[in-house]
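Example record

One chain of 134 residues, shown exactly as stored in the release files.
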Amino acid sequence: MRDSFWNVYRPGCQEHYVLNQLRKDGAFVPELDYSLQKAAELGCGALCFEGNIDFYGKSGFRPASEFGIRYHGLDEGEDASFFLCKELISGYLDGVTGEYAPPEGYFVDEKAVEEFDRQFLYKEKKTLPGQIFS
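Predicted structure tokens for this chain:
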């Protein structure tokens, strides 16, 4: 995972650390790790997360705003194109509106990421055009 995100959205990356932290969270459901089919089998009606629509749109994800769901901390109408949703049960979100708040493990300390990253081979952090965080 680290290699997939390295220097994409920021110099270096945090995604590998965030995933490591989320997997330790009490709300983490191991059976749902990377499987839409399993989520549907377990009765999940919809999934929401942050991602790139160019990639996840191919799997049927759409901006969550189309379902009336806002991302925590963003005002109505602010760009939240990164916040995606997919109904696993058709119509599951009909009439649902609200605000999504990411789990606590999603927010990380830069120093903790740096410490975690020391267990991996060194990679150069680069500032590149198109990165959204610096």
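Notes: The chain has a mean pLDDT of 92.
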